[in-house]
Every structure is written in structure tokens, then in C-alpha cells.
Amino acid sequence: FKKMFFLFIIVSFLGYINWFFQFTFITVSVTIVSGSVAERIQFRCYCVYASVMAGLIYPIVAHWVWGGGWLFENGVIDFAGCAAVHMVGGGAGLVATTIMGPRTGRFEGTRFHVTVNEFPSFSSVFSALGVLFLWFGWYGFNCGSVSQYLGQENVVELIILNTTLAPVGSTLIGLLLKTALNDFKKIDLDSLLNCCIAGLVSITASCSVVEPGYGFLIGCIGAVFYIGCSALLKQLKIDDPLDAAPLHFGCGIWGLFATGLFAHPDHVRAAYALDTYHVYAGAFYEGNDRGHLLAWQIVTIIAVTLWTCTTSFILFYTCHKLNFLRVDGQTELVGLDQRLHGGAENRSVILDAAASQVAQNQAMRAAQQQNQFRPIAE
User: Fold this and answer.
1) pLDDT digit string (tens) for 200-252?
2) How far apart are alpha carbons 105 and 42 in whole angstroms?
3) How does the average pLDDT of the chain come out, rounded?
4) Mind giving me the DSSP string for 207-248?
5) What residues pair up with 113 in beta bridges, in sequence order?
6) Sign of the alpha-carbon torsion through 251, 256, 261, 265
7) What pLDDT was estimated at residue 274?
8) I need a labelling partner for 275 at 20 to 30 A (CA). Which of 18, 73, 115, 233 fits?
9) Could you tell me if 181 and 175 are in contact, meaning their C-beta atoms sit under 8 angstroms apart?
């Protein structure tokens, strides 16, 4: 009886491994949205959107790309979730923050002529520690997507290598670009940390099917995508406190597209462990169906964008009309922790620093205008 009992426990546990694995992916996707709407979303809206994303938006995309859906049947490769996790979370976050509007005092001026008032992060040390935790967790995120470890050790080794090289490349490119944009006088740590995440997101779809050199390149280009998308959102006056949409939606798009370019046929065959599977390679490799994978990766980008953004717009616009999307202005300034959740708060330090930054920017613009109209002495 005892042997049968323990056998039942083991079989039940193994049968629910995939359920738990998808559960963790859903939580990641939902958490991405929270970064875009940080500091101003009502808790009841958070509960509503988390339920809808977990019960409807994410499962549909996961079925399309992983569960034998129409995208999977046409050879689409999204090994660890560029579409199902990152594009879904980043796209929903982009729609939510656009409807919600920017934080108080974040932008000045008109679109494409925007002055951005930087709100300093609470702790760069904690931010760096968090990114290190994420990077470490990404090894489980990507390696855990392997269907079985026995017999696929080479696949796991390739995943580990690409999951290391891509963020290294993105961080190096981010260091060069952001430092150059600051006239080589300032190193923006927060941007470098985001560039590291950009590389991790970019390699998620192709970590098991590309050569390490291409993995490094994918990470490098991912940093460019992130920096460009982040700058564009600011000029459109779309406030994303953690740059979640540029990181996950923008780099998720690049990751899917890059898979259509660089997927190696031998690695595709090994990763999916199907010798009889008709392998579609990236556009950089010769084959009878050259371009097929790239075309369907683009179809995936379009389909996931339309599904995610449409359903998210209906969800968040309805919350907006029902007046439980955004907290009131006073609560936003005081802080949600202190006003709604009874937590100790050091927000006054951040608010004072933000107010000082706004005043400094205004004084600089006033001085520039005064110098501009000052008559030239003869």
C-alpha cells in the first residue's frame, strides 16, 4: 500500500509539471505589466487584469505557439517565450500605460519636443541585485523549456552559452551607446541594467537554435532596439516607469524576427528532438524552404500584437471608464504604500529629488531663453 501511495504521488507530480511550468510563465507575463503601470494603478484593477491575462490573453498565445496551434503547425519557433511571455506582457503594459497617462510632472512640452523630468530610482544597488537575480533565473527560464534533459545535454549547453553571451553583448553595446549619448561624461547604471535584460529577452526565442556568435549579435542588436524604443516612447509622452514595454514588447519582436534569420537547422532538429520533423531553418541558411521560417515568425509578431493589444485595450479602457484604473492625484503623490497599504514609506526623499530636478530643468530653460533673446553687444 505504501509503495502504491508513493507511486501515485510521483506520477501525479510529474503529470502537473507542465501545468506548474506554464503557471510560472503566466506570473512573469502579468508582472511585466506591473512595471509599465507602476506608482499609479488601483489594486482592484491589478487583480482584474491579472485574472484576465492568466485566464484568457496568455493561454491563447501559448496554445498558438506551443500547444499544437496554427503557428506551431507552420513551424514557428518561440522556444522559451518571446511571443507568449514577453510580447504579451509588454504589449499589455504598453496599452495600459498609454490609456492611464504619465505620472504627474513626468513630461513637459509637446510630442517630439518633450522635456523628460527624470525621477531617480530609490536604490541602484537593489536594482543591480534584482537584475542579477533575473539573469540567474533566466537560466532556469530557458533551460527549463527543454522537454527532456536526458539525451539533450548538448541543447542545454547551447542554451546556457547563449543565455550568457546575449546579455553580455547587449550590456557592452548599451555602455557604448548610452555613454556616447551623454558625451562620455556619465554612465547611466539603470540603462545598463535594462540593456542586460534586453539581451536576455532578445535571446529567449532562439536560445536553443542559434550559434553562439549569432547569440552574441542578437544581444547586441537587442540593446539598440531597447534604447530606440525607450526614446520613442518618451517623445510620444508615454510614461513607462521601468521601460517594461520597450524591453519586453520591443525586444520580444526582435527576438522572434532574429530567430527567422539565424536558426540553424541542426540545432532546430536537436532542440525539438524530432528526427522526422520537417525542419525550417533561418533565412541565412540554404534550404528548399528558405524564408518560410522568417515569414511565419513575422506572421507571429503581427498575430500576437493584434490579439494582445486589442484584448488589452478593451480591458483597460473598460477599467478607465468604470473609474478604477488609476488612483487619484493625492494618492499618487503620497504613495500607494502609505495611502492604501499601510506600509512605511520613504517616498518623500524621492519626491524632493524629483521636485528639485523639475525646478532645475525649468531654471535651465529660462536661462537659455534669456540668453537667446539677449541683444548682442556692439
Assistant:
1) 999 999 999 999 999 999 999 999 999 999 999 999 999 999 999 999 999 99
2) 19
3) 86
4) TTTS-HHHHHHHHHHHHHHHHHHHHHHHHTT---TT-HIIII
5) 110
6) positive
7) 60
8) 18
9) no
pLDDT of residue 5: 45
Amino acid at 133: F
Contact 155, 205 (CB under 8 A): no
The structure's pTM equals 0.86
**High-pLDDT (> 90) share of the chain, %:** 58
C-alpha dihedral, 257 to 261 to 267 to 271, nearest 10°: 20
Query: How far is the C-alpha of 147 from the C-alpha of 156, rounded, in Å?
Result: 11
**Long-range contacts (CB closer than 8 Å, 24 or more residues apart) made by 14-23:** 21/144, 22/62
> 97, 245 in Cβ contact below 8 A?
yes
Whether 259 contacts 208, CB under 8 Å = no
**Chain centroid to CA 229:** 12
Q: Bridge partners of 116?
A: 107
What digits encode the pLDDT tens for the residues 310-356? 999 999 999 999 999 999 888 888 888 777 776 655 555 555 666 66
Cell readout for 179 is 555613454
C-alpha cell at 114: 518633450
Residue 269 is which amino acid?
Answer: R
DSSP letter string, 319-345: HHHTT-SB--HHHHHH-HHHHHS----
How are beta strands 107-110 and 113-116 bridged, if at all?
antiparallel
Residue type at position 88? V
- Read off the pLDDT of residues 172-196 as tens digits, 9 standing for 90 and up: 999 999 888 877 778 888 899 999 9
- Would you report the helix, strand and coil content of the chain in percent, each value rounded to 5? 70, 5, 30
- Give the closest residue to 260 by CA, choosing from 221, 318, 205: 205
Residue reference for cell 542559434: 210
